Amino acid sequence: MDKALIPDGLKRCPLPVFSLWLLVLLGIIGWGVYAGVVVLLDALNVTGLNDYFGFGFYITIDLAIIALGAGAFFSGFLYYGLSRYFPALKELHKIINLAVIVGFVCYTGALAVLLLEIGQPLRGWFGYWHANVHSMLTEVIFCISCYAIVLVIEYVPIILENRKLDAIKPLHVFGHTLHELMAIFALTGTFLSFFHQGSLGGVAGVLFARPFAYRTGFFVWPWTFFLFILSAIASGPAFTALICRAIEKVTRKKLVDDSVYELIAKIVGRLLLVYIVLKIADTLYWALVLAPEFGLKLTDFYRAPYGMWLLVTEILICGVIPAIVLNVPGARKSSTILFLAFFMDCAGIVINRFVMTIQALATPVMPFDRWEVYVPTMYEWAPGIAMLAYCALVISLSYRYLPVFPREKELNP
Amino acid sequence: MSDKAHAQSGVRYGMAIDLDKCTGCMACSVACQAENNISFRPDESNKLRSITWMEVYLLDNKKDYPDYQFTYLPRPCMHCDAPHHSPCTFVCPVNATTRDEHNGIVTHIYPRCIGCRYCIVACPYHARDFNWWDPKWPKSMEAMLSPEVSPRMRGVVEKCTFCHHRMLKARSKAYNEGSDPDQITYVPACAEACPTGAIKFGNLHDPQSEVAKLAKDPRAFRILAKLHTEPKVFYLSKYQWVHKLSDNGLGEAAH
Ligand code: SF4
Ligand code: SF4
C-alpha cells in the first residue's frame, strides 16, 4: 500500500506488520504523554523528586541520552571535518545518515523531557532573556537548543530524499543545496556540541559546596567538563553502531559493511582508553586530594543502595574492560564480543550520568545529614520510556521510507 | 573559578545563634512561617517536601545515658559570602537568585525563577525549598497573611531572606528621616521571636555590633567551613562535640 514511498529497489516488511509495530510504539508514547500532561497540570508533586533530590530521573535520562546522541556530531566531525586528512574515515559515509537521525531523536526527545523537569515550563524562555553567563545551565540551554536546530537542518535533506518528495523539483533542489552545505552545519554542530556536552559535565563539577560532584579544573571549566565531552564521543558512535546492529537484526539484512563497525570500534576504543585513564586519574585525585580537603574519605561517599559497586561497575567493568577489548584486533573480530563491548561502553556512560546526578545528591554533606534514597514514580518512568519509544518510532519511519543506508541495495541483492 | 571577590560595601548582615541558649521551642521557625507567608499542607509528614525557612535540627552526641547530650540547631539560609558568588547564586541560569553586594543578602526573585532547582542542588545546607503544590491557606488564615511579603507560586524555589522586607522598610524610614540608610539596624522575625535571645542579628562589618563580637567569640563556629562557602550565620556552643558536628572529618562525633 505504501510501496510508492519506499525507496526504489529496497525491500521492507509488509505494511500491516509495520503498522502493528507503530501501534505499540504509539501506545507507549501515549502513556508517556499522558504522564507528562499530568506533571504539567498537577505539578511535580506526582514525581519522586523532593527538596533533597532536586534533580532525578528526568535529568539523568537527559544527560544519558544526550551523551549517547553524540554520535551525530562526532561522526559528522570525523566525516566532514577530518576525512580529507584521514581518508579511512570516509567509510563513515555509510552510517552518517543513521548517526544524524539518532542524534536528532535523542536531542528532541531530551528537550521534551526537559520541559517537564522545570517547575515553571511557561518561563522556559527566561533562559535566553535573563541569561546568567556564569551558569553552566545557561551554556547548556543555549547550545542544546541551537544544536537541536542544526540537527533539524541536517535531518531535513535526509527526509527530502524520500522518493515522492524527491520527485518534487523545488524540494529536490532545496534538499540538494542543503546537502552541499552540510559540512558547514556539521562543523557548527561540532562546535556547539563540544560546548554543551562539556557544560553538562560542568553542571555537576562547578558545585563547589557538593564534595561528591565538585572538581577543580582549567580556567572556568571543571575537569568534569572535559570528561563529559570525552565520554560522550567515546560512547555516541558506539550507540549508533548498536542501533544499526539492532535494525540489522530486526530486518534480517546487512545494512553496513563490517568495515564500518571495525572503524567505529577502533575510534571508540582509543577514545574510551584515553577517557578511562583520565577518569581514573580524576577519581584518584578526587579521592586522595579533594575529598580529604573537605574532611571526607572515599568511603563516606558510598552507602547502599549507592554502594561502591557503582564505582566498580562504571569504571572497571563498563570502562576498563570494553576499552581493552575494543583495542585488541582479535577481540574486535568477533561480532558478539564487539557489540557487547559497545553495550558496556554505553552502559558505563549511563551509570556515570546517574552517579553524577543522583548519587551526588544522595550523599549527605552536613555531618548531621542523613542518606536519602530516591525512587522515581510512574510519572517519571513513563515520559522517559515514551521518549525511547519516540526514538524508535522516528528511526523506524526513517528506515522504512528513506534511503538511510547507501549500501543497503548492494549488500542485499 | 575566579577568586576575585565582588566589591563589598560596609554592610554585611549576619546572624549569631547561641545553641547553649536555644531551648528548641521553635518560636523562630513559627515566627518565620507567619512573617513570610510560608504555605503549608494539611499533611506535612513528608519533611523532604515541607517548606521551612528556619529548620530546627536535633543533634546529639551519640552516647548512652548518663553521657548523653543533645542540642537544637536552628538553620536559616546562611547567606553564603563565598568570594565571587554563593554556591546557589552562581548556578541559577536566569539570575533569579542573586546576592545583593550592598548588604550580602541572598535574594530570590520568584516571578523570574523557572523552577529548575539547580540552586537546591547547589546548596549543601538544604536551605532551599521547592513549591511542590499551589500555596493554599485555610480560609480563616487568609486575613492573617502579611501584605509585605509576596506569596510564592507553585513551581518556584524559596528560602530565608533574612526578612529583607523589614530591612527595606527600615531603609525607607531612615531615608525619609534624612539619616543614612546604611546605618540602619533591623531585626528579622526569628530573632525577634526567640524568647531566650539566642538569635542575634546585625552588621558583621560593624566591629561594635553584637553579632560581629559574637562571631569572634571562642565558642563560635560555622557549619561546613571547609567548603569555603563562607556562611554569614555563626553558631555558639561550649560543647566540643557540637563543634565537631559542624564539619566533616573533625572527630568521632561527626560520624
Ligand atoms: S545557605 Fe544555601 S541557599 Fe543560602 S546562600 Fe548558602 S548556598 Fe545559597
Ligand atoms: S530554581 Fe529558580 S532560582 Fe533556583 S536555579 Fe532554577 S531558576 Fe534559579
What's the short story on this structure?
With 413 residues, chain A is mainly alpha-helical. Chain A has a single domain (3-411), classed as Formate dehydrogenase/DMSO reductase domain (Formate dehydrogenase/DMSO reductase fold), CATH 1.20.1630.
Overview of this protein structure:
With about 425 residues, chain A is an all-alpha fold. Chain A has one domain (about 5-410): Formate dehydrogenase/DMSO reductase fold, CATH 1.20.1630.10. Chain A is about 70% helix and about 0% strand. A two-stranded antiparallel sheet of chain A has the order 1-2. In chain A, helix 3 (about 70-80) packs across helix 9 (about 225-250) and helix 9 packs antiparallel against helix 10. The longest helix of chain A is centred in the middle third of the chain and has 37 residues, at about 170-205. The radius of gyration of chain A is 22 Å and the shape is globular. Chain A starts with 14 loop residues before the first helix and ends with a helix. Chain B has one domain (about 15-245): Alpha-Beta Plaits (2-Layer Sandwich). Chain B is built from seven helices and ten strands. Chain B is α+β, with helices and mostly antiparallel strands. The model of chain B has no long low-confidence stretch (mean pLDDT about 95). Chain B has helices at about 25-35, 120, 140, 165-175, 190-195, 210-215, 240-245; strands at about 15-20, 55-60, 70-75, 95-100, 105-110, 130, 155-160, 200-205, 220, 235. In chain B, about 20% of the residues lie in helices and about 15% in strands. At the A-B interface, helix 5 and helix 6 of A face helix 2 and strand 6 of B. The complex binds iron/sulfur cluster (SF4) (2 copies). One iron/sulfur cluster binds near residues 106, 127, 128 and 159 of chain B. One iron/sulfur cluster (SF4) binds near residues 78, 106, 127, 128 and 229 of chain B.
